[in-house]
Amino acid sequence: MKIRYISAIAGVLVLAAAIGATSATAQSVGPVGVKADIPFEFYANDKLYPAGTYTLSKVNQETLRLHDSQGRSLFIQIAARDTVNPEDRNWIVFHQYGNTTFVAGAYWSGSSVSLRLPESRAEREVAKRVQPPNPITIAAR
């Protein structure tokens, strides 16, 4: 009977430690997300999104999640991190080629790193015809 009791307590302690480690990892990723009103349609991972309110959030150190007010989501792999001077504002960057716009990156207030997203196949194709892109920075909250 004592062995079962000790085993149960040990199991609970292991589970609590695992949950605590997961929470610590999630907290080290940074703010939950940045929300912005995007006044134009844009592409993300070769999919066209309409103008609207979007949130870009960090899932982990390698992945961002783009989601809209209707709950539709897209996961995007982070391509690179660029060192920047910390600012007091959040922003999302887009590359615009003529009338075609692609999400390109994001920055969270107070960070010394901005995140760059990979160019999609569609963006690489457009970039061959129209050089260079016009960067558009949208303030986020």
Radius of gyration: 20 Å
What is the number of E strands?
A: 11
* Gap between N and C termini: 56 Å
Q: How many domains, as an integer?
A: 2
Provide an overview of this structure.
The chain has 141 residues and is α+β, with helices and mostly antiparallel strands. It has 2 domains: 1-30; 31-140, no CATH class. It has 2 helices and 11 strands. It has helices at 2-29, 121-129; strands at 33-38, 42-44, 47-49, 52-58, 63-68, 73-77, 80-83, 90-97, 100-107, 113-116, 134-140. The chain is globular, with a radius of gyration of 20 Å. It starts with a helix and ends with a strand.
How would you summarize the topology of this molecule?
Blueprint: H1 2-29, E1 33-38, E2 42-44, E3 47-49, E4 52-58, E5 63-68, E6 73-77, E7 80-83, E8 90-97, E9 100-107, E10 113-116, H2 121-129, E11 134-140
Antiparallel strand pairs: 1-4, 2-3, 4-5, 5-6, 7-10, 8-9, 8-11, 9-10
Characteristics:
single chain, 141 residues, alpha+beta, 2 domains, 5-stranded antiparallel sheet, 4-stranded antiparallel sheet, 2 helices, 43% strand, disordered N terminus
